Protein 1
Amino acid sequence: MRLYLLALNPTDSVTGGFLPAAARLGLDVTVLTDQPAAHRGHCPDVEILECDVRDFRSVITRVSTHHTPDGIFTNSDHLQIQAALVADYFGLPGKSWQAALRAKDKAQMRRHLSAVGADTVWSRELGPGQDPAVLTGPDVRYPCVVKPREGVASEDVVLVEGPEELVLRCKEIQVRRPGAALVVEEYLTGELCTLETLGDGRTRHVLGGFHTDVSPPPYFIEQGLTFVSAHPESLVGQVLDQLDALGVGFGVCHTEFVVHQGRARIIEVNYRAIGDQCDLLLAELLDIPLFEYILRTHLGEPLPRDPGARTDGAARLAYPCAQRAGTLTAAPAPADLLVDGVQLTYRPLREVGERHALYRTNRDYLGVLRAIGADQETVDRAVAGFLAAQRWEITP
């Protein structure tokens, strides 16, 4: 069977998750990407073809002039609509392109949820190049959050307290992202959580979720996540109702929401697997062929009624972050350790000698530490001990 995988830059999810899973399933894989050299460096044994994957018409042409497809798949935030359209063109299983658009376009997500009565969040959209001064009217609710309409990874997401700051932040983002539309929406207070789901269009499984540690405002950098095998049923029901309203139910989905006074409100819907190595941890922790399940849905195979996921484990991820711009001059090497029964896996995300700006996003991550054990207290202690024993140095 031939699987076409659409990708931009290489990611751990693809190179460490989906491509090995495709090999285990015996699939013939063709990677379509606009960055073929980067992918060949990571997976030299996989067929890689250059393609303007942001244009669904180019993808259709590339597939039509190659091998007959049995599945179209992407784990990229930026390519879900394209993959959905291409799958639909070839009559293959896939996500609804309308649902993929609602998930990707944060302004449309707010409008749609409000229109169907699922949830109403005050928000305004600022078109490309539009003067932010139009947002200084009396109806603006402060504090509020400014974000790119189709952004990812908290890039250029910032909390603002008043009209002058709102105009300033919008103009700053417009300089960095010319042509991008922005969303300004009310700040939703509460504990940040995630819900991880997997569906085949008929059956949907909740795989658990995470509690997320976020940096203090005005920025929103995810600094660590703690696995939760089951959020309270009432909260899960609220989130699933909102996903149903958006039409999200096929394949894997990573949903971020806040909880305040028993109410769950969606922050964003990422219609793909959770990233930053959380998906790698999830597959290992739950002890299920997670990546194979995801690919099988895109080949038209039903999910099992019971995926067989374990629920007796505890896990945490931690991300040492750069606190300033500069060159990384000292950092720990990759490590696989067993400490007090806790499996620790550390992987660097920057090489010593690399120089970077300060991004105030997950691009500031210096490495990722995955920890899996039998109870949360022991896992947390092992994580704290490992991080305290390491040294990361950045020279301005």
Protein 2
Amino acid sequence: MTDDSPASGAPIGRAARHAVRPGHLLDVSTGETLTDVALVVEGERIAGVVSASDLPSDLPVRDLPGHTVLPGLVDCHSHQIGEEDSGHGYTELLTRTGAQEAMSGVRNARATLEAGFTSVRDVGTYRAFVDVALRDAIDAGWTPGPRMMVAGAYVSCYGGGGDIAGLAPDAEHLVPAELRVGVVSTVDDVRRVVRRILYGGADLVKLIATGSVMSDNGDPGVPELTEEQIRAAVEEAALHGAHVAAHAHGAEGIKRAVRAGVHSIEHGSLMDDEGVAMMAESGTWLVADIYGGDYIAEIGRRDGWRADVLRKNDDTTQTQRAAFEKCLAAGVRIAYGTDSGIYPHEFAARQLAYHVRHGQSPLDAIRSATTRAAELMGWQERIGRLEPGWYADLVAVAGDPLADVRLLEDVRFVMKGGQVVRPLR
């Protein structure tokens, strides 16, 4: 999967000092596109950004002529574990083992990385802690994949969007315990479950604050956790230095989550003007999957997805995009997140064009998936920029992504931590 044969012909290993010399380099901080520049890489990190004409003659160089290099992309709302959604609810999880879920994660992580996403915030899996295992396997070098920040399991009410619902009452006992680690009823349950998830190795907490589009039952507009429960999760997570992401479609659920102090609202599909103003004032992040509705409508109707899923998708797609535009106008902090897993992970860059279509400049869309995403994750001093000390995570495209952001749907080269994971093609 790696290519250690640079233009100079000398082999390049991960620990070696070498250089990458592109045709252009997009500085996402300033918005400038630079020429005659090279990145000096040492081990996993960028050691310097220098004039290409000043490179030492004995330094191995990997040339990317005619290509623009920019930081590796970041998806703040990814689901690396599991099969692509079938549109028939989540009782299908009972037909797969934990081992099968883990192996699907291996496949998805590879596809995500090769699509140019070198880091992800994975916001939950029904089968608890499989994402933790995948993160650790990637970090150990056992399997290729992006850097992962993981949620471990969903925190959800009984029968809610993070529970396995839709079974006959006399079949409830068949649901394995690992599929219900995060199911809660009381405030005390929330505190216990948050501790369980973080002690199990998760990096953040993911709440299902309202109903879901894709679940077996429930209404996206209906709150599923109380404000007291959400606040308990935020307080408990803070004790462990972790943030809370709230899946919230409905207006009331969004406002409960913002008042309770969550770090980010995921989806935000039915947000009202009051919710927009609250998010802008509080600094709460929005992570909105504004491409996914088109995919669900097209593929779901083609493949016969459940009628209630298609209806809920139709009810939330355009309202979500309107909310995105209002949040943008109000100065709400926006980070890139796709809900990949609903659709194939190799499509994760398709949403960038939707950010532009709904009000962002190409540069701001790219920043939402680089500097802004890194800031949301608290990783702003390690990823999201091409600067000395940051990880040598970068992608290259054939052309100018500021002129056509869709070029990022077809990255031609990917490096993660100084190692080529997708050679120039």
Protein 3
Amino acid sequence: MLKKQNTVFNNSTVKEVGAILLFYFAFAWLYRIVLWYNGMRYIEGGFWGWLNLRGFWLASGRQYLFLLLGSVVIWFLGYYLLRHKSRKLQLGVVLLLLPVVTYFIREIRYIIIDAIGENRLTGSGEIWDWYIPLLFLFFQFSCFFAYRYFVENQRKIILEGELRQAALKSELSAIKAQLNPHFLYNVFNTINASIPPENENTRNMIAQLSDLFRYQLQASQSELVPLRDELEFVKKYLDLEKARFDERLDIDINVPEELLDEMVPPMLLQPLVENSVKHGLASLIDGGSIAINIKKSEGKLKFEISDTGIGIKDKSSVFKKGIGLTNTRLRLQKMYNSQLELVDNEPQGLTIKFSL
């Protein structure tokens, strides 16, 4: 199961940000040691002179602080603003920004140093304040993109493993469901025949339950079904639940007529509706309502299943408890690269959104 980590900004974890700061600190001290040694400062300050904090700040700390700020600018312009674009475009923009930002970093740093009257490289020596920062930033962003590629690849491997496991479970479930399905129909018919005629409501409920099983068995053999069939199945399921809730359950389904022939995966809505009934409304004395809204926008079907139940505070924990929402989420990712979004309903309850 993919675990959600604490993020700081744009999916960067606290550990990743800490590693970047440690990376800069370590290289700043390393550069400080090199300058201290090449300048033979150990003769004047002794072996431990490189630990002098003021010397560290003047020799390398300030320069690497400017590099850190410059890298943030490059990251923002070349990666964050283009996070939905191709990786090639991101790399191209970053490569163009590296010399530009390095140049401005050097010039701004020179202006500040000259203003406060401190020493800096001059003449031909200024080339090192161009070459070293440029090389450092190039190395840093090479590591950054390599790391991002590794993380995304690991996530894909984990997701593919989960999808294979879910597919195997679905195949096993389908095989089990197809084992002598007529047995179920015969049992329902036998029960119906044994119920007295005056209990017509019970007979109708058993007939509806039989229809639910029939659809479920047929759906296990189909990749897609018309939306009207899926909605009819959900309506029959909600009618059974309404018989249990009586007047405590209101149902509102809003779907344009022209969308009823759209093809959708079978058994997609029922687990979401069941979640709303079981975890959202069942514990409320006054019950509540469930609304199913489907529309088409920008070439995609937009689904919203809302309830006025108790809602969910920790929405990430929902996928760890049951198989209904988890399997639905995996199916959407596998078939449509779509995400299952859980948001608070107003004034109370939960809304589940996704698109096909």
